[in-house]
Every structure is written in structure tokens, then in C-alpha cells.
Amino acid sequence: MGAAILQLHELRKTYRMGSVTVEALRGVSIEIHPAEYVSIMGPSGCGKSTLLNLLGCLDRPSSGRYVLGGDDISQLDDNALSTVRGSRLGFIFQSYNLIQQLTVVENIEVPLYYQGRPEAESRAWAKEMAARVGLANRLDHKPYELSGGQQQRVAIARALVNDPLVILADEPTGNLDSASGVEIMRIFDELNRQGKTILLVTHDSNVAGHSSRTIRLRDGLIESDLKNGPSPRCSGPGDDWAGTGFGHAGGQ
Known about the structure:
Distance between the termini: 36 Å
Radius of gyration: 18 Å
Number of strands: 10
Order of helices and strands: EEEHEEHEHHHEHEHEE
């Protein structure tokens, strides 16, 4: 196994609300290596959301170190953190976080726009990402014209468009029905087989079962960090991956 792509060293996060101090994270140390597939679980209030915010450079730790791609980013200013988010991380949210006024291809292009990529190059690459998640025939649709599963596919394509070091997913199947959830997890499984590093937060043990490693938090500390058995392979139509596609075009 190669050098860690992501390292946390005694990461702590404390919130102060008036005279009350809340220790959301109380010294978390984790190493994630390239192409690992890791789930983070734990009860409400255990620190999962705080940890994801720190991993996603949406917040800074109170103390400790966060090393991403060999660089210590623990105390970067907001502008520098924004650059890291745009170039090294891909986000997938439970609520999709798509821009309703934009089309599928325009939503996928958003990260490239902030990087100042040439328009023609951005459009071509966004179309390629849409095709990879089975949405080549939905490029001009708006999010409200898509099913929940299709919207999450757009979010995945948007997360992939910058070729991130790490994909961060927050309850990626939380708003989906069972069939759509299976399709989305099939995409994650294939991305990992292709070498993508994935870290997802979930309360669903079936979702966590797709990962190769599960970290459980409790009261701001790591309760357990265990390797999983072989990931269950989703069965059903479209289970054989053709070319670079991850499923059916226009899948639900």
C-alpha cells in the first residue's frame, strides 16, 4: 500500500456557544490510502458531520493536522481552502445540491468554471462525465426534470469532473428509493474499482457494506476502525459494465 493520500493527526474541533463548550471531535487520527473505499458511521452527534466538514475544507480544526496529498492544509485561509476544495476534492451530498436554473451539463461544468478552464474544453469534459454516469441523453434537462437517482448521477459527475484526489459523499443514498440507491452504489463500486479513493458518511449498514473499511465514531472519538469483508456486488440488469459507462443511460 502506498503513502497515505489523507492523514489526520489528533484532529480536534471545539465549538463555543456562550458559556457552553462542545467538543465535537476529541483527537481523531486517520490515514486513508489511494484507492481505499471507506465508510464512516456512528450515532447522531458522534462527530460525523463535523469530520466531513473538516475533510471537505469547509471548516478548520481547533487543533491537530490535516494533510491532503502531502500538504498540511489545517490552518489555510479561506481562499486557499477554496482552491483545495475545487482542485483536490469531489463532493456528493444527500440533497444533490444542484443549481436548478442550470442544465445537467452546465451543473457538471460548474467546478471547471471556477478553475477558469476554456469553455469548449469544459463542455467536452462535462459531456464525457455525463456519459460515464449514464446521462448522455439528459444533457439539456434541468434538475427538476430528473428523478432523484438521475440528480444524484449529475452530482457524481460534477464531483468527478476535476479528477479529485478524494471523493467525499454524505449519505449519498439517503433521499433515494431502494432501487435508485442500488444503482448509485453500483457507480461508487465501479469508481473504486477504477482506482478512485472514496470516503462516505452513512447510517446505512448496507451502504457501508460496499466499502472495504468502516470507521465508527462515538462522542467525537474513533470507536473502531475495521476492514470489511469482500464488498457485496449489486445484482440485476446492467451489472456488466460496458466501456466507461456505469449503468443505463437515463437510469432512475
